Amino acid sequence: MKTSIATVSISGELPEKLDAIAKAGFDGVEIFENDFLAFDGRPTDVGRMVRDRGLEITLFQPFRDFEGMPEPLRSRAFDRAERKFDVMQELGTELILVCSNASSASLGGIDRAAADFHALGERAAKRGLKIGYEALAWGRHINDHRDAWEIVRRADHPNVGLILDSFHTLSRKIDINSIRSIPKDKIFIVQLADAPLIDMDLLYWSRHFRNMPGEGDLPVAEFAAAVAETGYDGYFSLEIFNDQFRGGSSRLIAADGHRSLIYLGDQVRRMPNAPSFSVKAMPDRAIVKAIGFVEFSADEEEATELVGILRTLGFRKEAVHRTKNVTLYRQGDIRLIVNADGGGFAGPSFVVHGTTAYAIALMVDDAGKAFERAMALDAEPFKQAVGAGEVEIPAIRGVGGGLIYLIDDKGDLGRFSEIDFLPVEDDAQIAPAHLLHVDHIAQTVAYDEMPTWLLFYASIFEARKTPVFDIIDPAGVVRSQVLENASGSLRITLNGAENRRTLAGHFIAETFGSGVQHLAFHTDDIFTTAASLRQNGFKPLSISPNYYDDAEARFGLEAALSDRLRAENILYDRDEFGEYFQLYSPTFGEGFFFEIVERRGYKGYGAANAIFRIAALKKHLRPEGMPKS
Ligand SMILES: O=C(O)c1ccc(O)c(O)c1
Ligand SMILES: [Mg+2]
């Protein structure tokens, strides 16, 4: 499988686009005509720029409103084509994409269109060029790849073939089985794009909301598998029209695109009946068995404050690092590491971001294989010097430049805390709070980074994403999407902030980047936990009494239960599977907080409560820290 991307998918000027595309590892690039027209250079210069970067021009596009025109438009279309052939020869590309005619002047008739393509094929052949015909989903007469294929078949010219584009086929829910019977040598190239399912006009949807395969909701991998079954093993080329991508970082978007294609290739390779597909094998998606630990970076002063909160939450000091100012706290299966050492990566992370949970360790089935898969998917490896005799834990960079450590229960990795740490006795008087494991990790990112991280997690780890949920913050909207596995051992909620006046946006602005904004721990008895926390001096986030009146009415709660909830500041939710209880800490530092949950069968995340929780949390932020709305 060879990878390509259209210049239209990437922001910036043409040279910047090409740099980003080459750096991300693509083999080829589609030159989108407008990008070329806006560039101040000859076609030969552009051709050289592309080849100097080690890329091939996969095609030149789009050529519009060609087939089925009445005279004199028909002759003019042929003249226009000859001019574009000149450009292509200078650029050094042999394929032009002709998209189906959308003009109201065009005449229907499959044979008329086929005759036009035969004639164009003759002209192209004289110059050694090829014509690829693509059905736009909104084409005037041709808007279905099956009809486009019939025209190509009747055109019956070796220089005329079909271009498939997943968006046009999948947006119209056209049966992808119809692809399986197209001869592979008549498929000149395949374009791929995904999109979120939104009910809107096809043209508008296509030109503004496409995204990378795997980032949206369309069955793009199944589409690619149907293509692969024809024996086609040529370029898969991303063609992504997306408003956010146009304004985003060219490097990051190109990198996402490359990752999406590798992941897609891996998915197709694993499907039955796709034997001819040449993609590199990589280990399976890693199965996350547990959250191994979460590590905070802090200076001495903030570490003391953080540890004070951990103690009220019932955490005990379990071990100290042999050589560094690093302490391990524990409760149930939850391990929290407080790193106040100032060295390694934690030190600079603190200087930039303040006290944050900058590293997460995921306990996977096989850390070595998980790392290998992450590398195959372009993840950035992380290495730092380890002391003599200490365990080197494989790690990759995650959200906001934070770390994801990959551990498993084999060998030294399974015993790293015994090897690197010395156990200590903790004689503090703390009531245990029955916290058992990490329920979920909430990461806050800028809104336009959300697809990046959803793709990152879902491609490396065995997890699925839930639909987007909009959370209303008093100062704006925060979009929330969850990555979770079936067992619930991996649950990451990603919150995308659009402005800095929302709680999430404030967090990003004040911590100078995306990161973990809250950690939720699971208890199997929220009321016993609440009592222990009170005993430890924990101050829960106080929730408006109006909330409880409403909850009582909405869920038909017994007065005794709602009184208990009110007394303990516990939020309540219910779904078809069961009940959910949530208790929050106030914010710490720049907006970090803890949550304690009890799930009685419930599968969600209390999204309906988020608005009340956010309103309450905002009252606790440092008053000077929060911009006035
Ligand atoms: O939106 C368009 O006009 C357009 C042009 C060329 C394509 O390949 C395509 O998929 C869409
Ligand atoms: Mg297309």
Automatic annotation (TrEMBL):
Residue intervals of the VOC domain: 290-409, 437-586
Zinc found in the keyword field: no
Binding residues annotated for a divalent metal cation, in chain numbering: E134, D165, Q191, E239
Signal peptide start-end: none
Family recorded in the similarity comment: Belongs to the bacterial two-domain DSD family.
Cited function: Catalyzes the conversion of 3-dehydroshikimate to protocatechuate (3,4-dihydroxybenzoate), a common intermediate of quinate and shikimate degradation pathways.
Protein name: 3-dehydroshikimate dehydratase
Organism: Rhizobium sophoriradicis
Lineage summary: Bacteria, Pseudomonadati, Pseudomonadota, Alphaproteobacteria, Hyphomicrobiales
